[in-house]
Amino acid sequence: MVPSKRLEVITSGAADEIVIETLIGIRLFSYTLVNRVQGSGKRGKRADDDFMDLMHNCLFIIICSEEEAKKAAEALRPIVEEFGGVIAVSDCMLVKTDTP
User: Fold this and answer.
1) Is residue 100 a part of any domain in this protein?
2) How many separate domains does the chain show?
3) CA atoms within 13 A on the CB side of 92
4) Are the CB atoms for 19 and 72 separated by under 8 Å?
5) Residue 6 belongs to some domain of the structure
6) pTM of the model
7) Does the residue 73 lie in any domain?
């Protein structure tokens, strides 16, 4: 197992392509994107039933090094400030497998 950081970014689905472009720009190519997450926060309740596909939230999960997590959090901060959401960084253990 490898000590790593888990970066979770919850933001507007309208910003998902911007987040992806930002991650690519800082050379973080591995992420998981979960569309249509629901919950409640400063902007009120967000449901996953938005018929116009503009008001739902999405969740990015990125497993990376501490240095990469700091770089990503700083690069993504302006996006989250503009579109709303949160960025959370936590410790995790990456279980390596033999598959590429």
Assistant:
1) no
2) 1
3) 16
4) no
5) no
6) 0.85
7) yes
Q: Among 41, 42, 58, 61, which residue's Cα sits nearest to residue 50?
A: 58
Q: Are 83 and 72 in contact (CB under 8 A)?
A: no
pLDDT digits (tens, 9 = 90+) for 25-77: 999 999 999 988 877 666 666 555 555 656 788 999 999 999 999 999 999 99
**DSSP reduced 3-state for 50:** coil
Rounded CA gap, 14 and 54, in Å? Answer: 6
Amino acid identity, position 65 = S
Helix ranges (H only) for 10-65 are: 16-25
For residue 51, which of 13, 88, 21, 79 has the smallest C-alpha distance? 13
Q: Which residue has the tokens 């888990």?
A: 6
Q: Which two tokens stand for residue 93?
A: 């253990």
Sort strands 85-94 and 32-37 into parallel, antiparallel or unpaired.
unpaired
For residue 91, is it within any domain? Answer: no
Q: Which residues contact 81 (CB under 8 A, 6 or more apart)?
A: none
